[in-house]
Amino acid sequence: MRLEKRESRSPALMLLAPLMAVAVALVIVGGLITLAGASAPEAFLKIITGAFGSRLALTETLTRCVPLILTGLAAAVAFRARVWNIGAEGQFYLGAAAVAAVGSGALGTILPAPVLIGLLALTGAIAGAVWLLLPLWMRLRFSVDEVVTSLLLNFVALLIVSMLLDGPMKDPLAFGWPQSLPVPDDAMLPKLIERSRLHIGLLAAIAIALLLHMVQSRTVFGLQTRATGLNPDAARFAGVPPVSTLIKVACLSGGFAGLAGAIEVIGVKGYVTSDLSPGFGYSGIVIAMLANLHPIGVVAAALYTAAVFIGADSMSRSLGVPTAIADVTVSLSLLTMLVAVFFTQYRIRA
Amino acid sequence: MSSRPILKLSRITKRFGAVIANDDVSISLAQGEILALLGENGAGKTTLMNILFGHYAPDEGTVSVDGALLPPGQPLAAIRAGVGMVHQHFSLAPNLTVLENVMTGTEPLWSFRSARTGGRRKLVALSERFGLIVDPDARVGDLSVGERQRVEILKALYNDARILILDEPTAVLTRQEAERLFAVLRQMARQGLSLVLISHKLDEVMTTADRVVVLRGGKVAAERMTADTDKAELAELMVGRRVTRPARAAAKRGAIAFEAAGLCAAGAGAAPLDTVSFRLYEGEILAIIGVSGNGQTTLADVMFGTRKPDAGDLLLHGRPFEGGSVWAVHEAGIGRIPEDRNREGVVGDMTIWENAVLERIRSPRFSRRGIVDRAAGIAFAEQIMAEFDVRGGTPTRRIRALSGGNVQKLILGRNLLDNPRIIVAAQPTRGLDEGAVVAVHDRLLEARQRGAALMLISEDLDEVIGLADRVQAIVKGRLSPPVPADRADPRLLGLMMAGDWQRAGDISAGEMAHAS
User: Membrane-crossing residues (chain A) (predicted)?
Assistant: First the structure.
């Protein structure tokens, strides 16, 4: 048995690969659930009903999906151009904090709702972008690998936000909890479905994914960033300005992550806490990889990830299997996906 | 030399998608024989050898060693049958010693005792027997390319190879190293080993091999004993038509198309340019020769618009021209053929059409308001592929699938299709096979014929003598005065490249006086 490089990759294969990967991951997870003393089929049923089985479950899953789509896009757009943004978590928090700071201030009371929402979304995106431009600048100026710097800046960002929440941004009415002043009701995104937490941010996130797909596949900018990612020397020779291309990509990537934080604040919470994100930024990396860096795929991968987390919560409550099974499932899916991607490039010959 | 066939490939056919890499190929190899497999890039030589070695399974046909069939697609079976392969790109671990590299994969996994002592004895015996001298304890990372190749060969012999396949073994060697290699190969054949030499170089095939099989388009085009043939016939068989140096019509020199005066530029990791001046005339080829690393790359970068000159003036058709912008150079109608086609010329994982339009994507022909006109790009690529005979793919396939010659034809095509008035070509035929070289030369001369001004930066003196009208040498970032190419013999060019411009000038002037 041995491997042979495939000459071409059919679209069907590219679609089948992630599905197979997820299927294999779920089989392994089934084994683990059995080890934990529960029945695997029952557990999977609970996960599915817990994620989609009721109005509440479905809206919760979709609500969770929104920041995951955006952080997934943040990673996907950057990785395509070989900008290794591991810092979406920090960009998410700074985006959220910036929104709370601007929204809870004087501006929040004078602007009409649509303008205010637009301004806050932009504020979050800018804050996220700035937080990625910093490691990019270090890469361009000092050749420091942004894998390390963007990752480490996550902790810096989280500490800055914690400091703000305990200091200048602290809500005096929060009984001493470190949380920010809330944004006004006018700043909150309209609900998509009444009496749920699901807001129109979902539509915005899907629209952004579609838009990004169009930009990447149809525009000069998309062609040039792809060339820069695949062969920087050839891109430079073809007149693609390397620095400005990377800066644009970083603005998009950091912007998406910052926007994810902003939308989580004005869509769900209304204020910032230091546990606003259960690792949305890191999950975004996994989602981007699951989606093979394809924007539309990111939406599907985000839905899958959100469903696993929400469903596993509910399954855990009824069957007593630890919720860590959700992390295991998502991580295993990433590993099987990497194997699947490999098999889209090679075939086995007996 | 006995005539017993030790190796037989019978009716091998291998398809990759729609491309037929090998079409009903049959070859036999006698013991003690050196067989050359000759063919252009993309003729199917490497595929055939990969089938023999078990890297690929053939769609049809069989391989047999000593009359026994080899199971298809199993390298281990091929190794056990005594087939050894020396790849074009070495597969050695640079941090291990020669002995460790050679023994890798031969020691049993679950044994605590190392077979080092016996292994060393065997290695030393082999290297003495075949004159493959190399220190068993040297780290492979410290060895020269020639020595590494010897290690590769020893590795195959260590596995008791009786049939040795060498894939383009001289591609990475210097002239002297190649000579030494051939001596070793002949000695191996005398001692009863059988060798297959894959090559597209006529000289080495003629001097080394006993017999030649010529592959063309995946088929066996001919089989000859080297004693009964000559280079011209082989070249003809290889490309399927008579190879001739391109005939040059007399130059009809026109106006000055491009002029540089006192040009200085820093080189990024390359030699800088030091007050360089030259003129490009319409209908003329100016060749820049020189030993590599003397500023050619920097000069090319300036001409390509990827480097801004620090000082000096550029004039485009008599008007001042601001350098340092790829787009400005493109808009000025300057065709650009880069030195390293795989590094700078194309993005391997993008499609052929995307590579065709990448550098001109901002032109309204291929994009409007930032939206790419895919249909126009594909049409452009189709036109290039038809007119410049680019084979091996369709516009929407990845360019990685094309052979080197076809990639270079695409690069030429995307530049020449719109008849640029100025063309800068850096090492345009480096690493190409004979057929592709001729195609590239023909195209460049065609452009000259219709009045384009060409700058040819080349280290291949045959190419320069064949194509150029005037020659300047680049030495330590400075350019020699130009010399007419019809007075440039190898001796004069040698003096120019050595930087002895005074004597070169005397010779040139003397001959001019003599001629008049």
Answer: 12-41, 61-79, 91-110, 116-134, 146-165, 198-215, 285-312, 324-344
